[in-house]
Every structure is written in C-alpha cells, then in structure tokens.
Amino acid sequence: MYEILLMGAPAEGQGNPIVALLPFVLIFVVFYFFIIRPQKKKEETRRAMIEAVKKGDRVVTIGGVHGTVTQVDDGSVLVQVDNNVKLRVDKNAIASTGAEQ
After folding, report:
1. What pLDDT shows up at residue 3?
2. Each residue's pLDDT tens digit in the chain (101 positions)?
3. What is the distance between the alpha carbons of residues 70 and 87, in angstroms, rounded to a whole number?
4. Facing residues of 89 across strands?
5. What residues pair up with 80 in beta bridges, in sequence order?
6. Residue 95: strand, helix, or coil
7. What DSSP assignment string belongs to 42-91?
8. Which helix or strand (DSSP H or E) is residue 29 part of?
9. Under DSSP, is residue 40 helix (H, G, I), strand (E, B) or coil?
10. Domain segments of the chain as ranges
11. In the chain, what is the straight-line distance between the N-terminal and C-terminal CA atoms, in Å?
C-alpha cells in the first residue's frame, strides 16, 4: 500500500496532446484573421498610396498639415502649405492624399 502512495497515482485519463493544443491553435487562427491579416492589408494600401504621391497632389500629414506637393524625392516630399511657405516632410508622414480626403 505504501508503495502505491510513493509512486503516485497511475496515469489514467491522460488526453491526447493534440487536443490540449487545439485551443491555442484556434486562438492564433482567430488573431490572424481578425488582427494580423487586416493590419497587413492596411499597411500595403498605405505603402501603395505613399509610393503613388506625385507633384500637384493635395496631402495631409500625420500632424494635420494640409498642402500641395511641389517636389517628390526618394524619402521626402516638399509640401506647399501657403504662399511662399514650403515644408519638407518625410513620405511616411503623409496620412492621406486628395483622393482619400
């Protein structure tokens, strides 16, 4: 009798390890389809919008500055916000273009 107590209870009812991992897999699938995938699509459309910015486009920066693009460089754009007032901003700082306003 003491031998049984020292060895522990027999391993009865141990479930399949795949069944134990199933809830975690389902949670990951739900996160992928409701959070990760839409975020990737949103980032792709944003990247395409930034790549398509050209001279003459009306833009709004993430800081809320409205203006017209007068020059496009590799990583930045020159935005005219008023007569004789131009700002150089990074392309990543563009929140939206005239087509999306």
Report:
1. 52
2. 555 555 555 555 567 888 889 999 999 999 999 999 999 999 999 999 999 999 999 999 999 999 999 999 999 999 999 999 999 999 999 999 985 44
3. 10
4. 77
5. 68, 86
6. strand
7. HHHHHHHHHHT--TT-EEEETT--EEEEEEE-SSEEEEEEETTEEEEEEG
8. helix 17-31
9. helix
10. 15-51, 54-101
11. 80
pTM for the full predicted model: 0.65
- Per CATH, the number for 54-101 is 2.30.30.100
pLDDT at residue 95 in the model = 94
Cβ partners under 8 Å of residue 96, min gap 6 = 49, 59, 60
The rounded distance, in Å, linking the Cα atoms of 4 and 57 is: 81
Phi/psi for 35 (5° steps) reads -125, -55
Question: In 3D, which of 7, 9, 25 has the Cα closest to residue 17?
Answer: 25
